[in-house]
Amino acid sequence: MKSHFLKGIIAVYLVLFFLSCSKNSDSSYGNNTPPPSGDSNSKSVSIASMSFGPSSTTVTKGATVTWTNNDYTTHTVTADDNSFNSGNIGYGGTFSHTFSNTGTFTYHCSIHPGMTGSVVVN
Fold it and tell me: Are 119 and 107 in contact (CB under 8 A)?
């Protein structure tokens, strides 16, 4: 009896895990506008293989960084200080943020907390 109950709980957790990692994007979150073309100060970060690449990027004040999800798993780009948050980004989706202050901004995926990165703004 206890064995069936435990298996049921595990099954529920697995279903919830796979649903949170679906490839559907919630379009009500994030800024899916890419940076203006020709902006030499913009940088791109790829989300692939459950990581951000490059994991650290350096830009000047006023630069726009665009993250593109190249994983079939939904991810987020969430600042550790909550100064920006993409919401869910599905496969092929993008999120852009313009950095108007100098400093080091660390971020993570709120769905997969082991995924981390940083933007250094000079």
Answer: yes
Nearest residue to 62 (alpha-carbon basis) of 98, 111, 103: 98
Q: What angle do CA 61, 88, 31 make, to 5 degrees?
A: 40
20: left (phi over 0), alpha (psi -120 to 50) or beta: alpha
Give the number of other Cβ atoms within 10 Å of residue 73's Cβ.
Answer: 18
Summarize pLDDT for 39-87 with one digit per residue, the tens: 557 999 999 999 999 999 999 999 999 999 999 999 999 999 999 999 9
Alpha carbon 22 to its chain centroid, in Å, reads 14
Tell which CATH architecture fits domain 2-121: Sandwich (2.60)
Whether the CB-CB separation of 34 and 65 falls below 8 Å is answered with: no
Domain spans, the chain: 2-121
Would the pLDDT of 23 be above 50?
Answer: no
